[in-house]
Amino acid sequence: MQHTSWKRWWPVAAMFLGATASDRGRGRDVETEAEAHDNRQTALSDGRATLRIALRAVTWHPEGSAGPTLKVWAFEAERDVPRIPGPLLRRAQGAAPVRLEFVSELPDTVDLHGFTTSDAPLVVAPGARVSTTLRFDKAGNRLYWAARHGTAFDSRGWEDGQLTGATVVDAPNEVGRADRVLVVTESFTFDSVNGREEIKAQLALNGRSWPHTERMTYAANDSVRWRFLNGATVPHPMHLHGFYYRVTRRGNGTADDAIAAARQPLVVTDFVPPGHSMSLAFQPHEPGNWVFHCHFATHVNAVSSADTAYRHVERTRGYTPDGRHMGGLVMAFTVTSPTEVNRGAAARQLHLVIDKKGERFFHGGSGFSFALADSAQQLLPASTRRVPGPLLLLRRNERVAITLHNRLDRATSVHWHGLEIESYPDGVPHVSGQGSRVLHPVLARDSLTVTFTPPRTGTFMYHSHFSEAEQMNGGLYGVILVLDDPAAYDASRDHVLVIGGGGVPDVPMGFESPWALVNGRRFPRPVVMRVGETHRLRLASIHPDWQIRATLGTEEAAWQWQPAAKDGADLPAALRVPTAATWAAGPGETADFLVTPKAAGQFRLLVRSEDSGWMIRVPVEVKPR
């Protein structure tokens, strides 16, 4: 770390601190408005050898000018305004290094991370200045961040949580290629409401929270490339509606490496831990409006918003059909196409009833359920209104019309998770659709028919996409199998296990549910196999609150299994190799595995929350040949 004389800063201090003359006259207590940073332009575009960056207290409006005014800390590059996230530091691999000079206008000492290859931070006291050299030797994406002195990345709070930005080094084959840089930031604190300590966060993507995040537009079959950097203290399973994507690079905060094309599976959800990054690519072929969002319910609702009115709606579960029902880490984009496709008539009709769960959960709480009916008028007995919803067996390339009959006293919507279908039936209220035809929630005691054609065989899910923390925890989820011949499905060798919510918990906002179920049970029925026979295990993770881990084998050791598919898509050959039988996943992920037992006996599939929480044993009985 190198130091510079403060006198060198005086001629340029006003210029790069972005203050007006009246601001400078009032001194450092003035809080300037921070602007959302779309990360389109690098702060190093003019080939400069030095960049001066200030750290200062700001006001910020991530939910628009009419939203709450937040007081946080931000980076400000010279000749610019404060921005959240901080300035984009982007150059080609092998470019000349740049000298970074920092000055702090903050009241506390802070540590600067991610600007050097050393683990030791740059420490800058109030009014002090430090400098370092940023090099562009290795291609990839990397976060830089700051925090109060001595604070770890995942312990940052409200003000310092927004001191985050991206460094991008373009590989030779990436220079000039169109892409977008997406940086997640988070402010975090606790809030006491009615005697309960709630979690209050403000998640933002490039400085804005839904519904104010940037809406992008692409032409059908465009090549879309995003660089996603998770600057929050929490993980994000990132789900793309309508299309598969490939992860082409991964970064863990220290290293960022390209992934060989032969080892890039198709995914619709990918789990990004705190401080990590991914580069992703896809081709959107279906026109309409789509979303890209985190699949933890609390990261896309009012828990991740400082808006008091919106938080009250979530707290009281008072969502209305036309009111706001998403927030935080959600981004929408529109795909345009000059041609219209004639979809044809449905070859099959299903009636899916949404109702109260027939029986209460084990803890006495009520819930919700999906059930299949023969007609709109059929009354379903309590025994059929179970959790999870019925297994839906659909035929590949067969157009199906599903009428959703909402018998609840509240609105809902259904998302067909992972299916490559048209936009309108995709299930996101006030977003899904095209032009003037936009989906609305299914009102209480109303119905809606959606029609689509599943193009790919595989394991998929369906679940509520309205008031998800309540409705998904309450039981509105199930599994879809798309097969070439649904009549040939053999449940004795093809086992579906869905890990989901077990009731609506009475916990303070932002805290995880203590309940989970596997196939609707705390004590699931055994999976029966036979020695020498190959069985398929289809695992579906849809608990809205938890990252889970499933391990097959004994108490002492895991078996071997062969991964076969991810999110419904067959894995490339390089990934279909035997491996230890353990799977970690966030909500919104499915995986298929092939298992051939070698010995008879009693075994188990242990499913647990990745953090402390809950554990469920699924008995596995292997019979002799």
Task: Name its key features.
single chain; 625 residues; Immunoglobulin-like; 4 domains; seven-stranded mixed sheet; 4 helices; 45 strands; globular; disordered N terminus
Explained architecture:
This protein has 625 residues and is mainly beta. The protein folds into four domains: 6-166, Cupredoxins -  blue copper proteins (Immunoglobulin-like); 190-336, Immunoglobulin-like (Sandwich), CATH 2.60.40; 348-484, Immunoglobulin-like; 516-623, Cupredoxins -  blue copper proteins (Immunoglobulin-like). The chain is 5% helix and 42% strand. It is built from four helices and 45 strands. The strands form nine sheets. Strands 12, 13, 15, 17, 18, 19 and 21 form a seven-stranded mixed β-sheet that branches. Strands 34, 35, 37, 39, 40, 41 and 43 form a seven-stranded mixed β-sheet that branches. Strands 1, 2, 3, 4, 6 and 9 form a six-stranded mixed β-sheet that branches. It starts with 9 loop residues before the first helix and ends with a strand.
Beta fraction: 35-45%
- CATH topology of the largest domain, anyone? Immunoglobulin-like
Q: Total helix count? A: 4
Question: Distance between the terminal alpha carbons, to the nearest Å?
Answer: 68 Å
Structural class: mainly beta
